[in-house]
Amino acid sequence: MIGAVGAGLLGLLALSIPVGIVLFLLGFGVDTFFSSFPLSRGLGNMVWSSSNYATLIAIPFFVLLGEILVRSGVAGRTYAALDRWVSWLPGGLVHANIATATMFSATSGSSVATAATVATVAMPQAEKLGYDPKLFSGAIAAGGTLGIMIPPSINLIVYGFLTQSSIPQLFLAGLIPGLALALAFMAVTALICAVRPELGGQQRTFPLALMLRGLIDLAPILVLFGLIVGSIYRGWATPTEAAAVGVAGALLIAAFFRGLSLEMIRLSLLGTVKITAMIMLIVLGASFLNFTLASAGLGREINAFLEGLGLGPLGTILVVVVLYIVLGFFIETLSLMVVTIPIVVPIVLAQGYDPIWFGILMIVLVEMALITPPVGLNLYVVQGARKTGKIGEVMLGVIPFALIMLAMAFALIAFPQIALWLPGALN
């Protein structure tokens, strides 16, 4: 059954059928060929029960928040301000790409939205200032992945929803690994450009007065982050309520910078509807597929397979890491999570691992999937913003950053406190 489902998944995706539809079709296929009961008769009730959770309302709110910040011009101001502060490093403006992605990750909750935001603002600068297109675009694609690690994160919300884990605890656990990844991205960029200065373009410095004035443009993102995350951790708001507060804050910021208009609101709402519809179709399709797979006994098959390997906890988690890396080549990230979580998480927890820790490890592995071909969404988002050159350049550019993510995954396995220290300290 595992082989048949995998082959069906790859075959349908190769036909360019939308992922959500593919998941429903696979669910019907499992029901038809591997189940002795007509599982699809309960499709209506299953879809309703899967979507009838208040936690999921946070998703469109966070998407809308990111849309408002992008379309009101806040993104451009943030990028210009960070350019003044980090372009003196070897690699110059590449560091501004990573720093801007980090800041927008703290408000948007979406990697694709973060990558699209930074790419739109940054790409016009690459050729004008003589940057290597591979490193420049690769840094944007990799920096965008931080959108699902640094809180608030849509993917962490989905993980918490599917595993019944504490979303505030997941947000706390993702903060240190997310910031560590951002610093590691900047460090590897500086190292590459110190060895080969021609890749990094021109290092620039700005007067201190101009740098200090730029802090005004960074303040809105910091205020929003404090407003959203602080209200959750202080117990003043649930993640859903905090997302709504964030949208209100984004509207006020847009009005303050004179970026608020009826057309901006219309475009933001339209973008939110499109992205949310895509996410929810995937979630519902995966829920139906998970239901049919569990009913057909896939969980028992995987458990029997792992038990047959005779591996201990470390061996099991390493097999899981390899599984996610391989699947990440072919499956879109949110789909990868919702399809595998109900199967993999019980196995991991049975080995004595913490669900909050595993959620962060999974997010690191899913981040890699965003920048590994052939289905790495951030690769195509950045290439779309470039409008010139070949996507192979973007794929080559992300290699150093993908290796950093792999190193972070092994660091989390070796030192779980990287993720668990902050939740434990604040508790």
Automatic annotation (TrEMBL):
Top-level taxonomic group: Bacteria
Predominant place of localization: membrane
Membrane topology reported for the UniProt record: Multi-pass membrane protein
GO annotations of cellular component type: plasma membrane
Key words, A-Z: Cell inner membrane, Cell membrane, Membrane, Transmembrane, Transmembrane helix, Transport
Domain TRAP C4-dicarboxylate transport system permease DctM subunit, first and last residues per copy: 9-418
Localization: Cell inner membrane
Listed InterPro entries: DctM, TRAP_DctM
Transmembrane listed as a keyword: yes
Transmembrane segments: 7-30, 50-70, 135-158, 170-195, 215-236, 242-260, 267-289, 309-327, 334-350, 356-382, 394-422
A GO molecular-function annotation: transmembrane transporter activity
Function (record text): Part of the tripartite ATP-independent periplasmic (TRAP) transport system.
Complex and partners: The complex comprises the extracytoplasmic solute receptor protein and the two transmembrane proteins.
Family indicated by similarity: Belongs to the TRAP transporter large permease family.
Protein name: TRAP transporter large permease protein
Source organism per UniProt: Jannaschia seohaensis
Biological classification of the source: Bacteria, Pseudomonadati, Pseudomonadota, Alphaproteobacteria, Rhodobacterales
